[in-house]
Write a structure and sequence with these properties.
alpha/beta, 8-stranded parallel β-sheet, binds dihydropyrimidine-2,4(1H,3H)-dione, binds zinc ion
């Protein structure tokens, strides 16, 4: 055997038990109490949790956006992932307006294949849907990409898709078994509000949030859900942030195959951050909300109205954020997060009894593996599955601050928070990538995950 992980507590969505895990040739080959035999490496996991590696199903590495390019590429971004116990990330391959989907995927392979420490897959972020491109979808699925995101906003940045295009993709999703993701915000209303604030000289970071209030998100969420119900398509609403949107999702779940995601920052941070001298660092879309909205998101998870947590890792450094020094509309939107996802969820969610440890695994591994077509190779610890494994020390404390983290943004939105509970080891298909908190993996060793059809939960 290549590896035995001994004496840990195994955590799955449904079970918690003590057992050893045997790994050979990248796969889990045995799970049992006091596993007999020897291995090239034996890791003592006593006192720790052994969990399926996390899947961060929402990242933006090396992506051109708002006049710049995100600060983390697939080298630094997947290093962050490994430090955070993330074994697979699903990144948005942003379609250049003059390229088709297959060309877009090729561009993203060029960015990721030589650099990744962890496994990775792609969604296509659609910016220019035509009927010719719709015909290409079966070939895109053959290339291992089975999810497509459409933006209901960013008309100014050229990313916007209208309702008819979303409807068409939902129709096709039912036919072919892929997933349609939407970034849900009402574009014309928020653009009008932005313009009004700027015209009146209200250009500081707080007006980013004020120009994108809850109803802007909830209305677009409602519209996307209505289109999913009407078509019978497969819909996944990314980065949900507020109570009103959760209510829309809860109502629609009885009628359609619909899913919602939230992110650690929408669970733990509020719009007060925009008033701090570092307010620009928190400019992301949708924006941070209120304490009540944080609470609603935890309830949405606890009650399993939401299905996943992912990070929307979209890192920019301070110099990039300063592109909008005098005007919030020019600040590149986004924040880093993949390294801190499990520590924040564990410290703020599991420790504070808002979700269970088994639910944490469900939202960050099992559910995304099913929804995004990777189950049972990923998302579980069972014999025959890929040995994507994280060993997590619930007692290990770390301050979530730039000097301890690895994003090229050189700050964390959770700056000042101390997490209690950190990954110590991350194995990707049996390969040690993080070992005793040391990055030991090889750049370029991470593999593309060719995904299958969406599997309804
Ligand atoms: N929101 C962000 O904050 N960044 C990237 C794209 C997005 O939708
Ligand atoms: Zn988005
Ligand atoms: Zn995003």
């Amino acid at each position: 055997m290549d590896l035995i992980i001994k004496g840990g507590k195994i955590i799955t969505p449904t079970d918690t038990y003590k057992a050893d895990i045997g790994v050979d040739d990248g796969k889990i080959i045995a799970i049992s109490r006091d596993l007999p035999g020897s291995a090239k490496d034996v890791v003592d996991a006593s006192g720790k949790y052994v969990m399926p590696g996390a899947i961060d199903s929402h990242t933006h590495m090396d992506m051109p956006f708002m006049g710049t390019v995100t600060a983390d590429d697939f080298e630094s971004g997947t290093a962050c992932a490994a430090y955070g116990g993330v074994t697979t990330l699903l990144d948005f391959a942003m379609q250049p307006k003059d390229k088709d989907f297959l060309e877009t995927i090729k561009i993203w392979h060029g960015k990721a294949d030589p650099k990744a420490y962890t496994n990775f897959g792609f969604h296509v972020a659609v910016t220019n849907l035509t009927e010719d491109l719709v015909k290409q979808i079966p070939d895109v699925m053959k290339a291992g990409v089975s999810s497509f995101k459409l933006f209901m906003t960013y008309s100014k940045g050229g990313l916007f898709s209208d309702d008819a295009r979303i409807y068409r993709m939902l129709e096709e999703s039912k036919k072919h078994g892929f997933l349609v993701q939407v970034h849900a915000e009402n574009d014309t209303v928020l653009e009008m509000l932005k313009e009004r604030y700027v015209k009146n000289g209200n250009t500081s970071a707080e007006f980013h949030a004020k120009s994108r209030p809850n109803f802007v998100e909830a209305e677009a969420t409602h519209r996307a859900l209505a289109l999913a119900t009407a078509t019978g398509g497969n819909l996944y609403v990314v980065h949900m942030t507020c109570m009103e949107s959760i209510v829309e999702l809860a109502n629609a779940k009885d009628f359609g195959n619909v899913y919602g995601e939230t992110c650690p920052h929408y669970l733990t941070l509020t719009d007060e951050k925009y008033l701090s001298p570092q307010g620009k660092r928190f400019i992301m879309s949708p924006p941070l909300r209120s304490k009540d909205d944080n609470a609603a998101m935890w309830t949405g998870l606890g009650d399993e109205i939401l299905s996943t947590v992912a990070t929307d890792h979209c890192a920019f450094n301070d110099a990039q954020k300063d592109m909008g020094k005098d005007n919030f509309t020019k600040v590149p939107n986004g924040a880093p997060g993949t390294e801190t996802m499990l520590p924040v969820l564990f410290s703020e969610g599991v420790r504070k009894n808002k979700i269970t440890l088994n639910q944490m695994v469900k939202f960050t591994s099992y559910n995304p593996s099913k929804i995004f077509g990777m189950y049972p190779a990923k998302g579980t610890l069972s014999v025959g599955s890929d040995a994507d494994i994280v060993i997590f020390d619930p007692q290990l404390e770390m301050e979530l601050t730039a000097k301890n983290l690895h994003t090229k943004s050189k700050y964390s939105p959770f700056e000042g928070m101390t997490a209690k509970g950190m990954p110590t080891h991350t194995f990707v298909q049996g390969m040690p990538v993080l070992y005793d908190r040391e990055l030991v993996g090889k750049k370029g060793a991470g593999k593309f995950v060719a995904r299958g059809k969406h599997v309804p939960l």
